[in-house]
Design goal:
The chain has 506 residues and is an alpha+beta fold. It folds into 2 domains: 57 residues; 381 residues, Cytochrome P450 (Cytochrome p450), CATH 1.10.630.10. The protein is built from 20 helices and 12 strands. The strands form 4 sheets. It has a 5-stranded mixed beta sheet with strand order 1-2-8-5-3. Strand 10 and strand 11 form a beta hairpin. The chain binds protoporphyrin IX containing FE. The site of protoporphyrin IX containing FE has 27 residues, from helix 14 and helix 20. It is an enzyme of class 1 (oxidoreductase). It holds the Pfam family p450. Belongs to the cytochrome P450 family. One of its GO terms (molecular function) is heme binding. Its EC number is 1.14.19.41.
Length: 506
Amino acid sequence: MPSSTSSSPAYTIPIPSLLASASGAAVWLYTTAAILVALLALEQWVYKNKKRHLPGDAWTIPIIGKFADSLKPTMEGYMKQWDSGALSAISVFNIFIVMASSNQYARKIMNSPNHAEPCLVYSAKQVLLPDNWVFLTGKEHVDYRRGLNQLFTRKALGIYLGVMDSITREHLNRWLKAGADGKPQAIMYPTRELNMVTSLRVFCGTHIPDEATKEISDKYWLITLALELVNFPLAIPGTKVYRAIQARKVALAWLELAARKSKIAMAEGNEPECMLDEWVQILADPAWKGRREYSDHEMAMVVFSFLFASQDAMSSGLIYGFQHLADYPDILAKVREEQYRVRGNDIDKPMTLEMLDEMPYLKAVVKESLRVKPPVTMVPYKTTKAFPIADDYTVPSGSMVIPSFYNSLHDPEVYPDHDTLVPERWLDPKSSANTNPKNYMVFGSGPHHCIAIEYATMNIAVALATASVIMDFEHAITPQSYKVQIIATLFPQDGCMLKMSPRPRP
Ligand code: HEM
């Protein structure tokens, strides 16, 4: 009877069912624990099986692997990894990664499009959008890139040079004003701003307003911060990738507007003043044999890919260019001597391509500065199939393979006195530096090598040249000056403190 059963203590305290559920919970607990242990053991087995004899940790930290190290990378940590072997292994969030530090393996990865393709950093597809041209591979990539090469012809560079020259002067004069109190200034953020404004004006001219350059410049830092080798996997609010995506949306909206305005300006018969104009004009040229229609969005994505590829690398290259010149007064004196000579002592004379052609020493300084402190030390690739990279090792399909450039660029056999800035090594055609061009990997190698080598070196050259004639600068050395911080690219930890003052005219 229900009433009697319900009053029975044996039923109100259902001991047998409690026992049953306790043992059920225990079974559940033991089963879950057993599955977890099995999964963790499997994780280690998979790692060891992929790593085989390569140098690297014998065990991987469960689940996260070396995530903590990838959040705060250090040059010392990377160098330890590179020096541990020509190929070495790590794992982050179960992504198996093979680092390649020798010239031979680094070049092999970048020149094996059938086995590996660039994956940039983990967040790149979310930030750049998956349909950005930089993710194309094979013939599609070659064809698209062929069209974009037209944006870096000598004629186009001539247009960009004028823009770079005037913006650089304007910004350097601002730096001088900011440093008028004689106190050293960290040039890291001013350099990033100089570079962003230069890029946006070269790419979009006056097709974006000043407030857009300011907004993109301010927000771009959120994108830089998301450029970690491997990010937290979900782009949820509060994560770096989420913030970077919001910043990209703002930038793309302005860039689409610029593309639209450029098309209108060119249709009205105006002269090209920026990269977008040059592009629109090429597409309208009856002699142009390639594809003619690009939507505003597509053009904006290309410009955004250029911003993405250039902002951190160029800022790093510029900052170390300044630091190197300040640290090597003899080299700075030679740069100045060349400047005064080619400019005929007229320091206000706008720079032209013909003038740059007569400045071999300046070019050698830029090349050497980028070698000593390469802004991009490595470029992550992903294997699309098992990649027999060495006689005794095959990188499994779906792994990250990361060619690193640092050891190639600091190979003492090719670059004697490799940590010292020696521009002269580039002036002797028979030098080991010039006879081993394969070691100079500052701009990568293979089908995805930097599309803008001339552009990038020209921009750094213009900035250093102009600074050398309009200002005196002295490096205020701090304990952090020669320590490197890695925020996507390399920077001096103290942001490069310079004491700047106007230089008397010759
Ligand atoms: C000092 C400055 C720069 C350095 C050190 C640098 C370095 C590099 C490197 C190492 C790569 C990857 C190469 C590879 O995977 O083999 C690359 C690719 C690229 N760079 Fe640069 N870069 C610089 C400036 C620029 C600038 C100013 C732009 C644009 C105006 C640019 C646009 C690109 C693009 C679009 C790619 C991808 C090319 C492709 O996938 O076909 N870079 N760069």
